[in-house]
């Protein structure tokens, strides 16, 4: 017996008995800690995964050639074998081995992490173009242009589909030794008088009208060279970034020349070893040597380091040969590399920064609510322990001992819960986001102990204070605190409005000022509610005093004199409702912006894009039933701007202004086409500047310039458009009418045709017909199709999920805060309700009194939160860039979706009402046993 009695009085036994006496409160606090730790570890990982996915999507928008670390030169490669060996076939190594070995030496000097996100070097060389007319053919309406390509790793990129592999061309100079490696093909010819053999892609051979074994003669340098087609090939991987470095290799270029003739251009590959002999003809050539970028290896959190490594690598020159320059026919010497990877990563970083700014702004409110609910949860646990701890204090227990007991229980509650929540967070989202989330989880683990220990000074019954009795001097301190909060909130808003849109988030990270503004405003509104709501409540008390019913008068009087709703529950209601409404407004704004962006990018009811469309196809588009009008985009070619002697590249867009006006009539966001564009009166006046429309990017570059010319001709800007057009994805462009464009572009075969549907047309049927006419290589896009794609973008879909979570999660926390608030006030009700029950108060009246404790202030807080939620977008969006979510060129304006906002408010009211109803049932029943206990407690004082 003594041993058993001793076990009950031990520290562990006392703690166990204390926990089992009221376990629900402790379990609830542990669940709150678990949820906080889970969110602390899972959310950063989810955001990191979203950033990496968005980075991959952003990089996919760029052709591989723009991302690869590239040197493009007109100089000739250094010929000769490698010193230490390569993976090239032996015969190819004899010609290209030394060049590839030097590329590997350069890669060895590449800094990390750039080396980790790039692959082994590749090289392709192509000569030409040169005229390749059939034997005996005279110049006519069709001309054929041939590029001759040399790829040291040809068989790694293509497979033979017909005929033979090309043989090695042997010139008068010593040629590389022939080996039986299966690569050289048939025996090599003995001199350059023999044709060089090539292979074509099947589609190129068909368009070039070039049959197997057919020989054509090309002018090459000062001489000529015969070319024989010996086989056809297909790409092993047509989507390989290699093909972006090789023009017209898989698909020929079919275009009209300025004189109206049709020009077909294709590329055929020769045996790579043939370059040793072919170079003797001194052909005009271009050689690309590059390290392919591997986007799937780039993580968003490493993008800044990759950009730094890119800048370091591209700032130096590297020896690629023993030559001296970058000139035609000269041996290659020192070279520099360039890449668009750094710009792409910077663009993605800006989008990620904007995402973080929005998420931080959304999260600040729920974080404040989470902290407030933790405070309430800790207070509930403390109130459950108060009686026992007060008894221990009365019997001589020291504050240090009591703190130790509470700290130990807090650790038992918090540490296991935080550990479980953190592990769950890492398992749910398997991404890498550093250790920051675990530090926050550790704070949640220690929070219960810290909050419980802070309650020790209030353990003496003599120190209890009545809520309805004001302490002298407290009002002054309250005014000081409230004034400080008001000053900080107003200052933060003023600084935010003065600063304007933040565009550096990708460099400096989350802006704390922007993130704190919603919570500061919510706290300010909360204090205003607590100051003002007693005024109408006092009037309600006076009105109820004239009624015969006890519950309305007593309930309103208790709510006024002894309010259960302090700053914590009011803050949760204000923040929860305001964040929900703000998120609903933001969600509507983003969804509307995405829809506008989709419509603006397509530019019509449908856009047909793909291979060049013939006149017959264009006519067929216009004749489709349900098509009202079409407008081809005749050219989107690179063009040269000369600005005070400086040269800048831009994109020249050629359209027929009348056709385009007809197709885009009435469309919001269409590129403006002034009346002077396409005006025939000035089309033939050579002395007049060409009328054009320019982008804001071009306007900024020519501002203040004295002499500006487009392809050597003066022009007049009739309008400036800020952003892109439906005709080209580029931000820098010049648009002119087809009637003025003859001297500015070589061909006018459209690759994009915009289509306007007739009213009432069957969209699906028209789209299917357009697809049939355009062919398998073309695509037809409507705004609704593009809208689905834009909504699927990682940043946009991630923001939508975050906004939905920001609507639901704070609402649940608000309901929990209301319940906990009334649980905290239960001891006072346990003393009051039984006494009222002895005076005849029924159970329904008891529940009514409980509802009165928090009902009035909750109603006011709901209204205040809804008003704050409608104001927040106009404040916060002054500093948040939403363009990365909507895809628009301009910051979207705030859009209120009435249906969504009403649904959110109705949900908030419903959740709050259910919470009040649930809380009113907690301790609302006064049985005889509780009456006797209450009377005994009153007698004992």
UniProtKB/TrEMBL annotation:
The keyword Transmembrane helix applies. It is a multi-pass membrane protein. InterPro entries: ABC3_permease_C, Macrolide_Exporter_MacB, TAT_signal. It is found in: Cell membrane. PROSITE patterns: TAT. Its main location: membrane. Keywords: Cell membrane, Membrane, Transmembrane, Transmembrane helix. The chain crosses the membrane at residues 357-382, 402-431, 437-459, 479-497, 517-541, 566-587, 799-824, 849-880, 900-920. Residues 806-921 form the ABC3 transporter permease C-terminal domain. Coiled coil: none annotated. Residues 73-92, 666-685 are annotated as: Disordered. Pfam families: FtsX. Belongs to the ABC-4 integral membrane protein family. This is FtsX-like permease family protein.
């Amino acid at each position: 017996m003594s041993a058993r009695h001793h076990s009950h009085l031990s520290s562990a036994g006392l703690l166990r008995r204390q926990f089992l006496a009221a376990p629900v409160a402790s379990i609830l606090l542990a669940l709150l800690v678990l949820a906080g730790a889970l969110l602390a570890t899972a959310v950063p990982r989810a955001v990191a995964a979203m950033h990496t996915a968005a980075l991959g999507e952003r990089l996919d928008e760029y052709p591989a050639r723009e991302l690869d670390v590239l040197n493009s030169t007109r100089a000739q490669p250094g010929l000769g074998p490698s010193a230490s060996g390569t993976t090239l076939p032996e015969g190819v190594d004899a010609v290209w081995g030394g060049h590839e070995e030097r590329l590997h030496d350069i890669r060895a000097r590449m800094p990390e992490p750039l080396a980790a996100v790039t692959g082994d070097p590749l090289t392709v060389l192509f000569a030409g173009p040169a005229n390749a007319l059939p034997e005996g053919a005279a110049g006519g309406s069709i001309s054929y242009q041939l590029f001759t390509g040399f790829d040291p790793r040809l068989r790694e990129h293509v497979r033979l589909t017909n005929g033979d592999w090309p043989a090695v061309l042997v010139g008068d100079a010593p040629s590389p030794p022939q080996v039986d490696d299966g690569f050289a093909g048939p025996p090599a010819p003995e001199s350059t008088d023999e044709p060089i053999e090539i292979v074509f892609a099947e589609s190129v051979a068909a368009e070039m009208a070039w049959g197997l074994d057919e020989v054509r003669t090309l002018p090459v340098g000062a001489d000529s060279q015969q070319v024989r087609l010996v086989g056809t090939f297909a790409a092993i991987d047509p989507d390989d970034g290699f093909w972006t470095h090789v023009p017209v290799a898989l698909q020929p270029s079919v275009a009209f020349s300025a004189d109206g003739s049709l020009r077909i251009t294709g590329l055929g590959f020769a045996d790579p070893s043939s370059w040793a002999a072919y170079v003797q003809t001194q052909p005009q050539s271009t050689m690309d040597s590059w390290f392919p970028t591997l986007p799937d290896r780039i993580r968003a959190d490493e993008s800044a380091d990759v950009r730094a490594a890119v800048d370091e690598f591209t700032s130096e020159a590297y020896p690629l040969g023993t030559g001296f320059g970058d000139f035609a026919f000269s041996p290659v010497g020192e070279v520099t590399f360039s890449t668009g990877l750094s710009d792409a990563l910077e663009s993605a970083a800006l989008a990620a920064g904007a995402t973080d700014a929005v998420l931080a702004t959304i999260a600040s409110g729920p974080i404040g609510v989470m902290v407030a609910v933790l405070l309430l949860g800790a207070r509930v646990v403390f109130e459950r322990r108060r009686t026992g701890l007060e008894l221990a204090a009365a019997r001589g227990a020291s504050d240090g001992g009591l703190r130790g007991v509470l700290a130990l229980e807090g650790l038992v509650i918090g540490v296991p819960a935080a550990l479980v929540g953190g592990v769950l967070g890492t398992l749910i989202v398997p991404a890498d986001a550093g250790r920051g989330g675990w530090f926050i989880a550790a704070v949640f683990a220690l929070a219960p102990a810290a909050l419980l220990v802070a309650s020790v000074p209030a353990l003496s019954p003599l120190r209890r204070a009545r809520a309805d009795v004001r302490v002298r001097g407290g009002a002054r301190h309250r005014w000081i605190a409230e004034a400080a909060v008001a000053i900080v909130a107003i200052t933060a808003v003023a600084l935010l409005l003065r600063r304007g849109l933040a565009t550096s988030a990708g460099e400096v990270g989350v802006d704390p000022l922007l993130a704190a503004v919603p919570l500061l405003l919510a706290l300010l509104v909360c204090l205003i509610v607590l100051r003002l709501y007693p005024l109408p409540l006092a009037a309600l008390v006076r009105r109820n005093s004239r009624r015969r019913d006890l519950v309305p008068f007593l309930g309103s009087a208790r709510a006024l004199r002894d309010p259960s709703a302090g700053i914590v529950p009011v803050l949760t209601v204000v923040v929860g409702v305001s964040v929900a409404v703000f998120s609903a407004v933001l969600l509507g704004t983003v969804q509307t912006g995405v829809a506008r962006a989709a419509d603006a990018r397509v530019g019509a009811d449908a856009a047909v894009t793909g291979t060049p469309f013939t006149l017959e196809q264009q006519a067929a588009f216009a004749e489709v039933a349900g098509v009202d009008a079409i407008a081809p985009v005749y050219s989107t070619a690179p063009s040269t701007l000369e600005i005070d002697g400086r040269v800048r590249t831009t994109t020249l867009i050629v359209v027929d202004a009348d056709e385009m006006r007809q197709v885009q009539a009435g469309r919001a966001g269409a590129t403006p086409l002034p009346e002077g564009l396409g005006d025939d009166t000035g089309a033939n006046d050579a002395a007049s500047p060409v009328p054009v429309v320019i982008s804001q990017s071009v306007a900024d570059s020519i501002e203040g310039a004295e002499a500006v010319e487009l392809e050597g001709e003066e022009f007049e800007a009739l309008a400036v458009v800020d952003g892109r057009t439906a005709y080209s994805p580029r931000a820098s462009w010049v648009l002119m009418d087809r009637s003025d464009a003859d001297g500015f572009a070589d061909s006018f075969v459209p690759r994009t045709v915009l289509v306007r549907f007739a009213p009432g047309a069957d969209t699906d049927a028209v789209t299917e017909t357009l697809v049939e006419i355009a062919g398998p290589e073309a695509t037809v896009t409507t705004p609704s199709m593009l809208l689905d794609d834009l909504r699927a973008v990682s940043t946009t879909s991630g923001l939508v999920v975050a906004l939905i979570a920001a609507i639901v999660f704070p609402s649940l926390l608000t309901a929990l805060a209301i319940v906990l608030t009334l649980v905290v006030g239960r001891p006072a009700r346990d003393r009051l309700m039984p006494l009222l029950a002895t005076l005849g108060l029924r159970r329904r009246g008891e529940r009514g009194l409980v509802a009165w404790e928090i009902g009035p202030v909750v109603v006011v807080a709901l209204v205040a939160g809804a008003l704050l939620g409608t104001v927040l977008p106009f404040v916060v969006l002054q500093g948040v860039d939403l363009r990365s979510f909507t895809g628009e060129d301009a910051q979207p304006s705030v859009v209120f979706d009435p249906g969504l906002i009403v649904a959110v408010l109705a949900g908030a009211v419903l959740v709050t009402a259910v919470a009040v109803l649930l809380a009113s049932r907690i301790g609302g029943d006064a049985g005889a046993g509780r009456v006797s206990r209450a009377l005994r407690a009153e007698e004992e004082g």
